[in-house]
Amino acid sequence: MKPVKVGICGLGTVGGGTFNVLERNASEIARRAGRPIIVEQIATRRDNPSCDTHQVACTQDIFEVVNNPEIDIVVELIGGYDTAYELVMQAIRQGKHVVTANKALIAVYGNEIFKAAEEAGVIVAFEAAVAGGIPIIKSIREGLTANQINWVAGIINGTGNYILTNMRDHKRDFTEVLAEAQALGYAEADPTFDVEGIDAAHKLTILASIAFGIPLQFDKAYTEGIARLLPMDIEQADVLGYVIKHLGITKRTEQGLELRVHPTLIPKERLLANVHGVKNAVMVYGDAVGPTLYYGAGAGAEPTASAVVADIIDVAREMATDQNNRVPYLAFSEVAQAKDMPVLPMEAIETAYYLRLHAVDRPGVLARVATILSDQGISIEALIQKEATEGELVPIILMTHKTREASMNEAIRQLEALVDVAGDVVRIRVENLDEQ
Amino acid sequence: MKPVKVGICGLGTVGGGTFNVLERNASEIARRAGRPIIVEQIATRRDNPSCDTHQVACTQDIFEVVNNPEIDIVVELIGGYDTAYELVMQAIRQGKHVVTANKALIAVYGNEIFKAAEEAGVIVAFEAAVAGGIPIIKSIREGLTANQINWVAGIINGTGNYILTNMRDHKRDFTEVLAEAQALGYAEADPTFDVEGIDAAHKLTILASIAFGIPLQFDKAYTEGIARLLPMDIEQADVLGYVIKHLGITKRTEQGLELRVHPTLIPKERLLANVHGVKNAVMVYGDAVGPTLYYGAGAGAEPTASAVVADIIDVAREMATDQNNRVPYLAFSEVAQAKDMPVLPMEAIETAYYLRLHAVDRPGVLARVATILSDQGISIEALIQKEATEGELVPIILMTHKTREASMNEAIRQLEALVDVAGDVVRIRVENLDEQ
């Protein structure tokens, strides 16, 4: 069959990986795709020393790729919002199919991009945008189509998981481990996107849309980072039988949809609790299939390239297909209106909690703490009170049963107002991941 | 769009689950598939009390479904070889697309079936044949298309994993746990297919074909069951840092392809080692993506139905597609000849080993054992000699480094010939699952 010609925009880590995988595995890829996939042009501002591109036409202008009449598929790997947005929209207007690894772009501008793509009759594929090389988009969008998805929970930021794994294994502070991760290249110089959960929220937004058939709503996602976690919390969680992971969670409830990224205690014996280092894993609960899990490398040159190239092959196969027979961008042929399934405010979610507070070692403190919780209808599942050293504050660790976040907020407000309690009450949410 | 009409043949566990999922999730499924999926006819010899089929035409004759001109997709869920084979081949000849969950049928007659399907221009889909609800066929065949797959290793028989999990957790004998599994419905009255590894070999045969692009070669698979495992081996493995799992392993080597099912020691910290009970999980190593893992329910009515229905939706989308643009049955448009990538005989594989032997407690025994191993070029990684009770045989546990199975066979022959060694030498293969 006729070769399919791609133009790669951006030859950084992922672009370089994509080029190398397409070259190295060209013959197996052609056998799988039923036709050769050829890199027709590369747009890059600088050389990537890991790539031997001398047989390919190179340009410094990404828009040359978009306007190249030979090219069937534009592969956007420049990242960021502005230029990437321009590039993708122009490609669509030129009738090119698009493959992108850009989670920020899809999470924020996806609705608009898919609308334009639908009108132009082109495919926009974005497997690499979530969890790197793990085929999680395909698994949910095509593999679990029989299911009503109840929830999705995942470790979808490798940097954060690397930091948490190291804090736990070596009982070290966040800042220390972060500095090391930066030195090793696992964390960016500005680590905000990763450690504050923004990157995870981009990915979670995409997962929620394909799981539930709703528009992308990144602005509704709740994000809480890992910078405030102490080794002490990780240790106490361990004593209680839990591991702390930075999870993205999206759940369908009768009231609406939960969409949240935050540190979470999960039982040690869960597979997710045993996903270490920079690895990613996503759990998906479907009403027919039950719990399933997908694990692998969430970042890196060739793992991400694996997903980009899989998309290229899918597009190569589907581009001749009538639009109605293609897999819809967000999994559903009619995306539900946001009002049909509103994203719940954080106050409306229900979960169990881990609390840590520091109190003066005085008779009656525990009783006052217990009364405040009980007044809010919050029941205590476990309590650990550390032994006091003369004159020192005693740390009190509490695990509660499930309660509404609004009640917990009120309880925490009252706890922090107690004269016996010093400083902030630390609150970490708990998920057992065993619900339907 | 026009509804797609399916005929379900067999209304047992999986057939009933498929019917119920299609009914219960009809509206979400229609939104995903872009058209309604309608059960037009059911062929079954007896009612399934979990299904309300009174609005569907039912027949006792499966061939009526095949000949029904209204039906687009024949769903074969009767199992077994003979009638299922007839049914599928007739459906193909009638120009119907086929969805099946029948691993035995595909592993044994797949080459023939796919050839006939290709000539007739119809799709034969079989996601449910491997690992139940886990979309592992799709993940390898479409999600990892960029990769040269190096190896696949999986827990692909839930019954076996249930038995091993229970033997380990409760230090119980195989026969005892098997009887319990039979009482609970986790094991068949005749458990041969499950505990002897035949079922796993069927699934592994299919995985190997889609991973490496070779014809199905079930007759070349090596199978060894779990019936001879003792709680003692599970315990000693634990002491050495391993868990014993019944794995299907297929690996590409320079000499050819490994295709084997046997009990295997794997390091405790691997995710696969933490897959318990009836659950399945498959690890796939791709040269670009590295290690990935897929976990979920490997059997049961609705988990299997989840895969069957996903296939139905895929077929509904692809049936209008030109054959060249469909995903090839066995992942590759040209399947390599068996001679290009021969399946290796077991003697040619290389792996590490766990050995248990029982010896008379006499000076020099260990030296004789060590000499035999060393003469075969086998080096010892660990050795545990249990304390002897007066006059009793001493169990000796050995872990070796990697060696060729042929050398190990010869060493075992010589060990068993030693007058100091009583009975058979137990040999369990070891895989670290950390290789590229």
Automatic annotation (TrEMBL), chains A, B:
GO terms for biological process: methionine biosynthetic process; threonine biosynthetic process. InterPro entries: ACT-like_dom_sf, ACT_dom, Asp/hSer_DH_NAD-bd, HDH, HDH_cat, HDH_CS, NAD(P)-bd_dom_sf. Pathway: Amino-acid biosynthesis; L-methionine biosynthesis via de novo pathway; L-homoserine from L-aspartate: step 3/3; Amino-acid biosynthesis; L-threonine biosynthesis; L-threonine from L-aspartate: step 3/5. L-homoserine binds at E188. Pfam families: ACT, Homoserine_dh, NAD_binding_3. The active site is at K203 (proton donor). Gene3D superfamilies: 3.30.70.260, Dihydrodipicolinate Reductase, domain 2 (3.30.360.10), NAD(P)-binding Rossmann-like Domain (3.40.50.720). NADPH binds at K103. Residues 354-430 form the ACT domain. Its cofactor is a metal cation. SUPFAM superfamilies: ACT-like (SSF55021), Glyceraldehyde-3-phosphate dehydrogenase-like, C-terminal domain (SSF55347), NAD(P)-binding Rossmann-fold domains (SSF51735). Keywords: Amino-acid biosynthesis, Metal-binding, Methionine biosynthesis, NAD, NADP, Oxidoreductase, Threonine biosynthesis. The keyword DNA-binding does not apply. GO terms for molecular function: homoserine dehydrogenase activity; metal ion binding; NADP binding. PROSITE patterns: ACT (PS51671), HOMOSER_DHGENASE (PS01042). NADP(+) binds at C9, G10, L11, G12, T13, V14, G15, G16. Its EC number is 1.1.1.3. It comes from the Bacteria. PANTHER family: HOMOSERINE DEHYDROGENASE. Belongs to the homoserine dehydrogenase family. This is Homoserine dehydrogenase. It comes from Allopseudospirillum japonicum.
